[in-house]
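Page 42, continued from yesterday. The earlier attempt failed because a stray header line got pasted into the input along with the sequence. Redoing it now with the clean sequence only.
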Amino acid sequence: MLSDEEHQLVENTLAQKLSSCVLVKLSDVYPVVFSPNEIDYLALRLAHVISKEQGERQSLEKAQALTVHLIKGVEQLMCVDFQQDPTLEANLMSHLSSTYFRINHGFSISNPLTKEILGTYTHLFLVIQMVLESFFSEEDFYIPQEEIAYLTVHFQAAFERTQKPKQKRFEAILVSQYSQSMATFLEARLNRELPDLTIKKTIEYLDGMSADFGSADFIVSTVPLDNATLPVVVISPMITESDVAQLLKYMLEHQPIKTKKQFDLARFTNPFLVFPQLDFANVSDLLHF
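This time it went through. Structure tokens are written below.
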């Protein structure tokens, strides 16, 4: 039996109307008569679902408003234009909608890179913090430094994109101890989260395997690798926000390896016409050679 308070919670609500409609339909199909108590019991469950959806929709709306405010605020204070960067807006929307959900439900997020990001991008970190404080100046809402650190990485990546006409394209080798289907999932997730990263190939990790994985800019691995011939960034198989931030930070602070093409004159003429490393005392000796 429901209490009087529970009955009052759903009295004349949308959830109660929906519950009545559903149970009336069921009564038409089955020879069952549902009591007011049963109607309100279902209504309570529906009210929870409706409330959750409304909360998610409100979080999305707030995230959208904060995204616009953040981009404009950072643009003004940093004198940079992010309007032509849809990647930044999409990344901020995705992160901030999760931020609202975490904070509203009392969840905290861990960011082991917070101190390092604050130390490396101090000015940008403080600018974002200032813009956030202005947005929530009339609300009792606080975004912790761990969240700000993630936002800082997204903005720094966007700033790099505005500075370089050609984006830096990185190639990485993905090493995983899981099945090929899991590796495919990891690759798809990395491609979505990091458009400037291309997974050159995937390798299944085996004990005692060679540490030489071939040529690439670095290795993304779900397991620590000893004596690898390339830099290694270790990530979780679930690819957390901390993993994305770690990869972004690595890519911001390094340059892709570019294969240098050396010009060899001997490739374009007969070998007997090429005389390398000859020593001439003057121009006359060269002309009479």
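Notes: The chain has a mean pLDDT of 81.
Reminder to self: strip header lines before submitting.
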